[in-house]
């Protein structure tokens, strides 16, 4: 039986990024070698990453890989510069609600400031949303800042609740 990740990788979702206008970009799953391609620098445009060594990155990467199809980090690589220029993640929460349903959670979506306006954020969001749907999720949710609300509305999301947090 084909896994969700295999089905997604074989689908048009990954090929979709290879349009004529964007032939220098490829959408794929995060790889351990992306540490050297500026993955953490990119995430630093979203929030604080701190100093993460390659060893720490590799350990976390392997932890995430061990979660299988329930956690997928996708990246868009600029093939000319060999740099990661966009990323996002989705994880699948297995619930008791909705007859043991699943909910997708989108996290850590960011596009490098140098390539914004090329619709790479939309490509990431389309991929992550479809991935959650293919995984059997009955919904996909995300948290965002108020200044990013318009972008997510363009991606089909609606403001349905408020977010509460307790930070440690």
Provide the residue-averaged pLDDT: 88
Any idea what the radius of gyration is?
Answer: 16 Å
The H-and-E topology, N to C, reads as: HHEHHEEHEHEH
Report the CATH topology name.
Aminopeptidase
Question: Could you describe the largest sheet, including whether it forms a barrel?
Answer: 5 strands, mixed
Parts with pLDDT < 50 across at least 5 consecutive residues: 16-21
Q: What is the terminal-to-terminal distance? A: 41 Å
The total of helices stands at 7
What is the CATH homologous superfamily assignment? Gcn5-related N-acetyltransferase (GNAT)
| Tally of individual domains | 1
* Class derived from helix and strand content: alpha+beta
CATH class designation: Alpha Beta
Helix content: 25-40%
Provide the β-strand percentage band: 15-25%
Across the major sheet, the strand order is 1-2-3-4-5
Shape: globular
**What would CATH call the architecture?**
3-Layer(aba) Sandwich
């Amino acid at each position: 039986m084909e896994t969700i990740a295999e089905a997604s990788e074989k689908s048009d979702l990954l090929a979709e990024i290879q349009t004529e206008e964007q032939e220098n970009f490829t959408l794929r799953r995060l790889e351990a070698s992306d540490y050297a391609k500026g993955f953490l620098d990119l995430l630093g445009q979203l929030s604080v990453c701190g100093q993460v060594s390659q060893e720490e990155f590799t350990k976390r990467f392997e932890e995430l890989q061990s979660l299988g199809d329930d956690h997928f980090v996708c990246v868009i690589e600029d093939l000319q510069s060999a740099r990661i220029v966009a990323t996002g993640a989705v994880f699948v929460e297995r619930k008791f609600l909705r007859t043991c349903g699943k909910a997708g959670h989108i996290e850590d979506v960011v596009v490098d400031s140098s390539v914004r306006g090329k619709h790479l954020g939309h490509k990431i969001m389309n991929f992550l949303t479809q991935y959650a749907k293919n995984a059997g999720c009955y919904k996909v949710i995300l948290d965002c800042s108020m200044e990013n609300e318009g972008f997510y509305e363009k991606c089909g999301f609606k403001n349905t609740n408020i977010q509460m947090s307790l930070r440690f």
